[in-house]
Specification:
- Helix 1 packs antiparallel against helix 4, helix 2 crosses helix 3 and helix 6 packs across helix 7.
- The chain has a seven-stranded mixed beta sheet. Strands 1-3-2 form a three-stranded antiparallel beta sheet.
- The chain is an alpha/beta fold.
- The protein contains eight helices and ten strands.
- It starts with 7 loop residues before the first helix and ends with a helix.
- Strand 6 and strand 7 form a beta hairpin.
- Helix content is 43%, strand content 19%.
- The protein folds into two domains: 69 residues, Arc Repressor Mutant, subunit A (Orthogonal Bundle), CATH 1.10.10; 113 residues, NAD(P)-binding Rossmann-like Domain (Rossmann fold).
């Protein structure tokens, strides 16, 4: 049993490794090395070896990593060796783009239902889904046992929507609204705010 938790920054790099391995498999590669992974990702080979060693031994000295095996192991660690049902709350421009995005399923996630509170949108189609009334999201989440949600609502609606999701049993929220959420410690929140990343990049510009 591991004596101490794996640092979250290490866990955050595992999906990068998994994505690079998927790209290598698509190229027909079977074996890779920490050096090759590092060159693709801009991460040192020593860091990659250190990260992977937190979870076990996946390669052999001098022979590298079997890409298929390492991919399967990382999927198991990240628990994406199964498909997670996801609810999407908020069907504005961003929500519609998410509903139409076809890249979730082959990476372990499937949008199950989409919700909005705008009467003009309810019953309409987006990405092959019928937009449902946000007033009904609690019972649908509970009935299906869904644990993951994507939140694409305006910032002034985000906390209220998050509260309802948590009450319904959601344990993980991917928040696209440009605001911080207050949730219980048992609920994991990740934030996607493009402006934050743009601001980070412009610091490095001349």
């Amino acid at each position: 049993m591991r004596s101490s938790p794996v640092p979250d920054i290490v866990v955050g790099r595992l999906p990068l490794y998994l994505r690079a391995l998927a790209q290598m498999q698509a190229e027909g590669k079977e074996i890779t090395s920490s050096q090759e992974l590092g060159e693709r990702l801009g991460i040192s080979s020593a860091q990659i070896r250190k990260d992977l060693s937190q979870f076990g031994e996946f390669g052999k000295q001098g022979t590298g990593y079997n890409i298929g095996y390492l991919s399967d192991q990382l999927k198991g660690i990240l628990k994406v060796d199964r498909v997670w049902d996801v609810v999407l709350v908020g069907v504005g421009d961003l929500g519609r783009a998410l509903a139409n995005y076809g890249g979730f399923l082959d990476r372990g996630f499937r949008i199950r239902s989409i919700f909005d509170n705008d009467p003009k949108k309810i019953g309409k189609q987006a990405g092959g889904f019928t937009i449902q009334n946000a007033a009904d999201l609690d019972k649908q989440i509970q009935a299906a046992g869904i644990q993951v949600a994507m939140l694409a609502v305006p910032s002034d609606e985000a906390q209220g929507a998050a509260d309802r999701l948590v009450e319904a049993g959601i344990r993980a929220i991917l928040n696209y609204a440009p605001t911080s959420l207050s949730v219980p410690t048992s609920v994991r929140v990740e934030y996607i705010d493009p402006v934050l990343h743009l601001q980070h990049m412009t610091y490095h510009l001349p």
